[in-house]
Structure prediction request, 217 residues.
Amino acid sequence: MNLRKLIKVNIVNLVILALIVLFRFVAGLLFNDHDESGSTMVLAINIITVLFGLFWAAFTVYSNMTVVKEDKLEKKKEIADLKARLTRAGNKKYFVNERRILLNILDSLQSREKYIYMMDKDSKILELFQLTRNQIIRDITNVSEYIETYDYYSGKDSGYVQSICGNSQHLMDKFNKLIELTVTYDDTSLDYDTREIDDMIEALEKMRETGKGALGS
Prediction:
C-alpha cells in the first residue's frame, strides 16, 4: 500500500469536507433560518448540503479503497500485460510449448498471491515470493523480447528460451514445495524450511544484482 498516496487522498477529502462546511456556514449567514422570506432557500441549501455530504462520504470510501487495492490491481495488470506480450510476440507458430509453460508459471504465481499477501509483511515467505515473482517476470520479459527479435528466416535456436523455461519452472516448483512445507510442517521440517527459504532468498538477491536477468533491470 502506498502510504504517501493514501495521505494525499485523505488531505483532498478533508479539503472537500471543509468546503462543504464553509458553503453551509456562508449560506446560513446569507439566508437566516428565522427569516420567512428565505426559508425556501434555506431548505434548498440544506438539501444541497446533505447531497454534497453523501457524495463526500461515498467519494472518501471509494478513494481510500482504490489506494488500498492499487498495488494488487497493478500487479494483476502487470501479469496480464506480460501474458499478452508473450502470447503475441513474434511468429506464433514458434516456441509454442515454451510459451505454454511460461504462461502456466504466470498462472501459478497469480494463484499464490491471495494466500501470500495475507501473511505478515515481515514474513520470510512473503519476501521470498516477491523475489521469486520479480525474477520470473524479468525472465519472461527477456524471453518475450528474444522472441520478438528472433530471426525467423535464417536464425538458429540457441536454446535460450528453453533454458529460461527450465529455470523458471524449477524456481516455481521449489517455491511451491516450500509453501507446502510451511502449511504442513512439523517440528523437524520447520528448521529445514527456514534454511531453504534463507538459501533461496540469498540466491535470488545475487541474481538481482548480476546478469541481464537482474531484478528490476
